[in-house]
User: Fold Carboxylic ester hydrolase from Streptomyces chrestomyceticus JCM 4735.
Amino acid sequence: MTRSDRAPEIRTASGVVRGRWRDGVAVFLGIPYARPPVGDLHLAGPVPASPWDGVRDADAFGPAPPQSLAVGYGTGRQSVAGADDWLTVNVFSPDPGAAGLAVMVWIYGGMYMIGSADGPGYDGAALARRDTVLVTFNHRVGAEGYGQFADAPPNRALLDQLAALEWVRENIAAFGGDPDRVTVFGESAGAGAVAALMATPRAAGLFHRAVAQSVPGTFYSLPLAADIGTAVAAELGLAPTRAALAPVAPDALRDAADTVLNSMADHGKRWGRAARVRMPFAPVVDGDLLPRTPWEALRAGQSAGVELVVGHTRDECRGFTALSGRRGKVTEEEAAALLEWCAPDAAGARAYRAGHPDANPTDLQDLVLSDWLFRMPSLHLADAHTAGGGTAYLYEMAWPSPAMGGALGACHGLDVPLVFGNHGGEIGEMLLGKDPSPEATAVSESMMAAWTAFAGTGAPGWPPYRPEDRLTRVFNAESATVPYPEETSRRIWADWSFAALEPTGGG
Assistant:
């Protein structure tokens, strides 16, 4: 096969697919890895894709799963009525005729409520050009993926991810990849999914390395998830069961979940921190597929043979505050209230003020929320994996976005366009500008090199994390490997356990 005279064709387990050459990369889009989860399969686990005869054109992304309309940002693309083939996979290969290239499988984020693989920021061509087979895929989000309903399998989103990884194991060699050298990587909710998969016994052998970028600390107990699922079903006037909800149109189920999201403040006394951060969905510690939280599982040695890169951005939540127009407008009373419910305890709240005596209320709020939501869960995951006998590499992304006059800092999500090398598109241009600076390009280059080196060899380019020195790669205009830089926060949260969130028992 030459790249100039014919489109690339690959035989998968379900049938032959025809892709397209694009700038030296063979691109295959919208390949089903499971049947559409609608009709009799609505709110069921994924079922393997039906085979087809002849050659299937793989030149367009599959439709997005139902997307929350209440989150306020996302991929820019909503689900299309009647387009229900949500569970599809995309492959970017530098050479389908090769053998044994490292494989990287991306899991998107989006508060567990939005996300699809078709966003321009997730185009895998730049990473594929580094002798890597890059895979992206769609999985269910929101109530479709994480809603807890009786008689429906919990964590359907994780089941989708397992099905996609099983598809990779069975088919990726035909695209030039090595099924025994697979790295999963994801950011935000995608990093939470990566952590959950590491804690899932059923995932053993499906991947061999993992990268978790900004791991959320929000995992839900069965009672909390079921209580929120009951509220979603109540918006439809139905029982919280699969039998009652499966006939409901997916968009109607999505709208009911959005109504619950918009009213979560009213449930603060019962749903606690989940209500405070307005997150109706998260991976559920169900005792079966996900027997315990990632921090518990990894500390006990689960996935000890999987090498892990994990880290966070320096200013995780600063961007949320800036984009909402709240920079400089948080009151002392608001900051004090957040410290009361978010810091580990009263001593921790005092330690924040003592450790940051000059912080204004906005900066204090952003710091504490960043620590609870992303920074400390990521650090603790490195600690847990190391304690369980695994190898972990820790990083912090500290290079600040130039957007909004620098108001965003090194914000949540900034690492995604840098790691993918996709500086255009809505997110890339918002965070990096229409013409990224040489500094931005250099930081991007260093992160891409580290991620692909890790996928290929297990070594990202800096020493492993160990409790005695806590060496951390800090990505910046001048990157360096130093002891973990957020020592004040580390000490405040040292004895905290990121347990599954429970209902508080309030009304």
